[in-house]
Amino acid sequence: MTRMTNDLTKPLAAALLLGTLSFAVGCANDGSADEGGECPSDEAFFDEQVWQPIASMSCYSCHNVEGAAKDSRMVLLGPDEADAVTTNMATMAAMAQEDVDGTSLLLLKPTSTHPDGHGGGMVFGTDSDQYAVFEEFVARARGTFECEDEAESGGDAGELVCGEDELAELGVRGIRRLSHIEYDNSVSDLVEVSGELAEQGTSFASDNVINGFTKNASVLTVSSLLADQYRQAAEALADHVVDNQVEYLGCDPAEGEACAESFVRAFGTRAFRRPITDSEVARYMDLFIDIDAEDGFDEGLRWTVSALLQSPNFLYRTELGVDAGDGSYALTAHEVAAELSYLILGTTPDDELVALAESGEILEPAVLEAQAERLLADPRSEQTLLRFVDEWLNITLLSSVTRDPDLYPEFSAEIRADMLGEIHRVASEVFYAGGSLADLMTVDFTYVTAELAAFYGVPAPDNVDAEGFGRVELDGVTYGGLLTQGALNATHAKPTTSSPIHRGVMVRERLLCQELPPPPASLDTSPPPVDPSLSTRERYEQHSSDPACAGCHELIDGIGFGLEHYDAIGRFRDYDGEHPVDAAGEIVRSQDIDGTFEGAAQLQDILAAGEEVQSCYVQMWAEYSLGAELEGELECVGDSLRERFAASEGRLDVLVDALVTSPHFLRRRADDGASSGSGDEGDEGESEDTGTSTDEGGETEGGEDTSDEGDEGSEGPSMTDGIEIEIMVDSMWGQGECDTVHVYNVTDAPISWEVSIELPGTLANYWNAVASVDAELTTFVGESHNSTVEAQGTVSFGYCVDY
Description:
Elements: E1 2-4, H1 12-18, H2 42-59, H3 84-97, E2 99-100, E3 103-104, H4 105-108, H5 129-142, E4 146-148, H6 150-153, E5 174-177, H7 180-191, H8 224-243, H9 245-249, H10 257-272, H11 278-295, H12 297-310, H13 312-315, E6 316-319, E7 322-323, E8 328-330, H14 333-344, H15 351-359, H16 365-376, H17 381-392, H18 413-432, H19 437-441, E9 445-448, H20 450-456, E10 470-473, H21 486-491, H22 500-511, H23 536-543, H24 547-560, E11 575-576, E12 579-580, E13 584-587, E14 595-598, H25 599-608, H26 611-626, H27 635-647, H28 654-660, E15 667-669, E16 718-719, E17 723-733, E18 736-745, E19 751-752, E20 754-757, E21 762-767, E22 770-774, E23 777-781, E24 788-789, E25 794-802
Antiparallel strand pairs: 1-4, 2-3, 5-6, 7-8, 8-15, 9-10, 11-12, 13-14, 16-20, 17-18, 18-25, 19-24, 20-23, 21-25, 22-23
């Protein structure tokens, strides 16, 4: 049953005068949900979804009576002020009513899409969960919101309820490009190389970063530069294989084509992480035969290896599965083996996983859990853990942060490296010993070299490992706990001094998952000038007393001051220059840990006990491990992980088992209306293509929605029968974007392809295709060299548009 709002027809001013605002969307307006429980009242919705998680954290800091936006039309009351919720709801509803070019002011400003921009920059994007919440609030304010009762309407995939619908526990299908680290690891294991050949990914164009992590699949695209770097890397690896072919072929080159085919089948299966198909072998053999006839066996082998290592089947891994007939897709055994291996080891499956995939045993829960336990015992799993720690705590820049050499001559490259070795060993011991997040936060030991011990002023270790590190117990006064680690405090500081702001932001964003809005463009964000007569704390307190700054700094500085005992290079101090250190601090506007504290030890104790901190850690780990943000389709997966983590009292290693045993690990949910044809062909149901199929509604399975959500009548891409496409955004800027389109032939016969797309703007440029524009659709066909896509083959073209 659908209930329409019908009561918001009185003038908004009247509602403001009454001091409350009732949107009447068919729900109770007493702050409770309606009888069915699915539709919260307007005030409950505003308080729980708009005000508390978004507006109080990201808007109020500027939009208050003394803030940078004090002269705007949206001035909000503080969280502790009387009637803050009802008054702020009315204020924001007034903004929701105003339109600019057909879009609500309340949607334009925080997304910085208003013609005049937004003084606070972009607070959230138009494709974010926050935007969806604001959209619903705008609809409620305007009286156009529909509250659907799932029990009566039957619901759909977009209305699945966590904990009640099994499909809600599944993410959607997709493909993901290997990160540069995964590429290097995979090459190292596949071609069995080391040194420069195994580290080519470190020189590739940098992977894009989302929320601090470099594994987010949505932005792991292939630019023209990266494609060229893949080519160069593949050619270097191919040269190595040819030069050492006796080790790789497993046959006599004198056998010619028979030997080459045997190699292609074996090497291709390992490279593609699933059995290579006969049609694929035929394509690579055609390449080998053509070159062999002209230039001989070695050249044929060289270019065949190079082609295999540039194939999307190697550079991407799939999570597409086969249609299970219940609204879900069951991942194939080889997809699950790869998923497990990349989760724990960050590399291609080893022989044992491959064998279990070939037999199908990897799909058995007990076998899968046993393999996860085996891989966690593999020394390579530690590198995956430590990469997460580095990106989670934003300490990847420790080796390159600038410090004044005159003030800190002892802060050498060796000390920086020792600091990383220290935090890595501490995190590793806590994790592999079955420790908890609270244990990590309050750990009472560390690992140091003799040089680092002298740097900190702690006792040198008696027994050391091969790299000179030894375990020492800490007093808990000067050092002890995660937030006293030198790597953390040295990274989050300024060139000449400590930085309460940097450290406070780190705790807010990485331990509490409270993303802070950028400072308004008009504000001077330079640090306070050095004044020997003032301590660092006093300088920042004066600097932050500006009412335009105070809103944000209230969230940040009170935490950062608690770490003032640590200087710009992470050493403990009792004095900041001639000034005694004052490390008293306060946490405000958190979910469950507000309060005052004294110094790092008390701050860590508070954080260690906070449910909000536990929830944030799960979010950080899951976003790193899944390569996706924990919102939208993965929201229920996140809820499930949080439940397991809480039940284990925050044991760090339980998250691996929780994910591996979750429904999501073996299955994926189909997008609404998605075609079930992709991935159902091939060897034992194994997907032969590496892309995602595009359904009639324009939804790219496992990728981005290429349809225009705002136009209900828009048509999705159309294409020749037997063809599926994947549209990937290579680059996007304020005035346009450039996309690459991969065209996949999922049949066993060649196809002359044609693809029609409703572009998101005016066609400005295109390549590897011929384009024609008819009304709203642009039709692309291949040029002479790629107009036909071979059976199970792939071609690509691209275009740029102006919005």
